């Protein structure tokens, strides 16, 4: 059934680049949108009561995965909105359902600790998973690559220096948060030529972008044929959701999957914004 669709763009607690790119694109395409916010210390979604006007309206979110966490935990619309009208309260369950459908996320399926066991061609296929709470003082004799296993990015990925503890590494990360219950992915350091991001809708690679070359940021829409062919092949192997991003690394040993990310929060880099936004819009229009 085709119905009304409104994009929701997070204006607080979301990176400025993501926010500005989304708003510029939505205005260019004439797609309906509204802004919302989530403050770090609150479980309320700012402006939500002004957004919800039609219980049959569908939503597409461009914002962080914390909205998914709040929506998953909510049992009543009033837990999220500042003030709820009588009509909104009457249709509260329907509004929550429509909002949840606008976030393409499954906590387990986007967790590398889960998909590492599926036989995928992962860059860090040699990784060991360490629950952080019980391994704060763990250190290694050689440099290691370390990242959080979940997609929420509790801390930045980087190099765990030889002799440095996991706790010390996290302490020097400027954006570390809510990491105590996380699992650390620890692997050997790899030589990487370039890194690419691809946007996948229902198993089809819609668009992509290089985002790093020789260790430095490099946003480029010109993707070598071999990389694109690998992306199309890998996109058939695993679908953490109907819409997702897949990051690939070009290495001296071949092309490998770095990780999967929630599309709602992923940076677009130099990807074709029109293609991905229209592909997602079309998918949501067709979905019941």
Q: What are its keywords?
A:
9 helices; four-stranded antiparallel beta sheet; single chain; D-amino Acid Aminotransferase, Chain A, domain 1; alpha+beta; five-stranded antiparallel beta sheet; 26% strand; 3 domains; 288 residues
Structure description:
The protein is α+β, with helices and mostly antiparallel strands and 288 residues long. It has three domains: 5-101, no CATH class; 124-187; 191-286, ATP-grasp fold, B domain (D-amino Acid Aminotransferase, Chain A, domain 1). Helix content is 26%, strand content 26%. The protein contains nine helices and twelve strands. It has helices at 16-29, 48-51, 66-73, 86-90, 92-101, 112-115, 166-171, 225-234, 273-286, and strands spanning 5-12, 33-37, 58-62, 128-131, 144-148, 158-160, 183-187, 194-201, 204-213, 216-220, 243-251, 254-261. The strands form three sheets. Strands 10-9-8-11-12 form a five-stranded antiparallel beta sheet. It has a four-stranded antiparallel beta sheet with strand order 4-7-5-6, with no helix packed on it. The longest helix is centred in the first third of the chain and has 14 residues, at 16-29. The radius of gyration is 20 Å and the shape is globular. The relative contact order is 0.15.
